[in-house]
Design a protein that fits this description.
Layout (H helix, E strand, L loop, with lengths): L4 E4 L14 E4 L2 E8 L14 H18 L7 E8 L5 H12 L6 E6 L10 E9 L7
Parallel strand pairs: 4-5
Antiparallel strand pairs: 1-2, 3-6, 4-6
Length: 138
């Protein structure tokens, strides 16, 4: 578990949610990861029409972006999901849980949109992370 971040799952007066932390704060270097979509390294769409396959690819891409900044999922403080249909959220949660494992979940927001940059894409996910100051930069 990350020691540079504090997760507050249920602030006083709010309803609990097992799907995210209501508040996350910490210290360190800020990392913003642009919204990731289900494209492979060659730019081909992975899992057209398949929310589970797209979610797995998106979280793999997020992981690669975090690694490039010297971060990991343990450093993520916020995720924002942009989905063309909220029915895709269970697939996203499954892929997120596989990526995060037993780590505390970050704060998150989900927004339904009418379309993404390509019609076969079902979701886009962005991340914000904080890397401990004492971790070596890449």
């Amino acid at each position: 578990m990350s020691t540079h971040l504090t997760h507050v799952s249920v602030p006083e007066g709010l309803a609990p949610s097992p799907q995210y932390s209501h508040v996350v704060w910490g210290t360190g270097r800020f990392v913003a990861v642009s919204g990731q979509i289900a494209l492979d390294a060659s730019g081909a769409v992975v899992g057209a029409g398949d929310p589970a396959a797209q979610a797995r690819q998106v979280f793999a891409n997020l992981g690669r972006c975090l690694t490039s900044a010297g971060a990991g999922f343990e450093d993520v403080v916020k995720l924002t999901y942009f989905v063309t249909d909220t029915a895709h959220l269970p697939a996203i949660r499954e892929a997120r849980d596989a990526a995060f494992g037993p780590l505390p979940l970050p704060a998150s927001s989900a927004v339904q949109v009418t379309a993404l940059v390509r019609p076969e894409l079902l979701m886009e996910i962005e991340a914000f992370a904080l890397i401990p100051e004492d971790r070596d930069a890449l």
